[in-house]
Amino acid sequence: MALFTTQRGLDRLVNFSDATVAIAVTVLVLPLTDLAGQGNRGVVDILADHGSVIGAFLVSFSVIAVLWTE
Length: 70
What we know:
mainly alpha
């Protein structure tokens, strides 16, 4: 039985990986929407209270972006 490789198979893999990255980035953003709805607080107050969460988001987003572009 011979194996056949096509360009379409590679396109499917690329599209699947793009969709996976899009879902991962969407899941990363969801907790940040809770921070946005906390009323009339200033940016400095929000950063002081949730700086570690925002920092973790930035690191995760950066790692996903670097791995996606390679």
